[in-house]
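[agent] plan:
  1. take the single chain provided in the ticket
  2. run structure prediction with default settings
  3. attach structure tokens to the ticket
  4. add a short note for the reviewer (M.T.)
[agent] executing step 1
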Amino acid sequence: MTEDQRAAEASTRRHVRRWIWIFIVCLAISGLTAFPLETETRWLVSLVERAPLADHFPGVLEWAERVRDGVADANVRYPFLAYGTDWLAFAHLVIAIAFWGPLKDPVRNVWVIRWALIACAAIIPLALICGPLRGIPLAWRFVDMSFGVFGAVPLLVVLRGIRRLEWAEALRRQPAAVAAPAPASTAV
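[agent] step 2 finished; step 3 output follows
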């Protein structure tokens, strides 16, 4: 393996790890936001009220207020329901931890990246099936589906980089005898 090939492989490995870190951080932030829902829904209503969006789409403000009121009411009357979102947050954090393997050895742990891509794809049917059953507006279902689409982007970048690393490892393992032609026979 030449010095240029080693440098390219090291660069690809750094690139893959950078994108995995981005995915981990986004997943962790997404999970942590599931804890303070009541505060976040109050902020959301305040933001929508000040934004010009509410003037053009009054349904957005109505929906944000309905969600804020529902979360606040549930927290007063049925606080145990918030335990479900605590578990959602915990699941995000645990899934983020699963990416430690690909950070350490992306080629060996490529299955985690493939599994995460499947999970991103599964968000779409979940939103399309469960959204209407739960009375979620279509526009919000598209927001939910966007998490799968945007989550897949860094994972696809990582998968492409892992394929390059797999190729580099395959070349490195190739015996030198295969690279050099066999000597010609001198038999008479």
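[agent] step 4 note for reviewer: The CA atoms of residues 48 and 57 lie 10 Å apart.
[agent] ticket updated
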